[in-house]
Amino acid sequence: MSSLRTESRTTHRNDASTVAAERPRAVDLAVGAEALRARLATRPDAEPEWVRPGRVALMKGVSGWILLTFLLAYVVNPALVNAIGVDLRLISVAASGPAMALTGGLVVLLVGALRPSVRLPRRRGALDTNPEVAATAGSLLVWGAAEQLLPVFQPFTSMPLGELAALIGLNVIESALFGVMLASFTRSPGKAFAIGAAFQLVLTTLVAFGALIGLG
What we know:
This protein is mainly alpha-helical. Helix content is 73%, strand content 3%. It contains 6 helices and 2 strands; from the N terminus they run αβααβααα. It has helices at 2-41, 55-83, 93-114, 130-149, 161-183, 189-212, and strands at residues 49-51, 118-120. The protein has a two-stranded antiparallel sheet.
């Protein structure tokens, strides 16, 4: 009997020490897993979150962005450029205003009808900017081709250097601002490029039509 009691005590003692040794190990594993999740969530290339705003809120947001971009690109920035002595008579609000209103209205209606999701970063700096760059490039490519090829526009080769530099700079700003908005609906740079190009194609076509009928 004495021998059996000794073995029992030894067994219980060993079991208790095994459990005590495994508890810190389990805690360490839990802490490590939590730390890994935190690191993945704060990685610079963390996946963006997608939100789907209400239809009215989304249409209001797009409308406000288009209006602010138009005021900045066609009113404020040209006025600042003219103030430093560069004459940008090529930018006509009379021709661009109706074209922007029609193009912006079409975008707002499409956004309201489709109600796409919007990309948002999990944290500051986490959002991939490739779609924004692609949308800007698509818009600039169409604008540059139209400016150089359509007879209603003055080609780059006939512009004074200062006027050409100012015009290109203003259109880069405009395309970038619209690119940020348009690319927020997709992760694909290819799709963003096509969206930016399509937006600029509609806008430039309407501006050219306005100039032909005498709005400019």
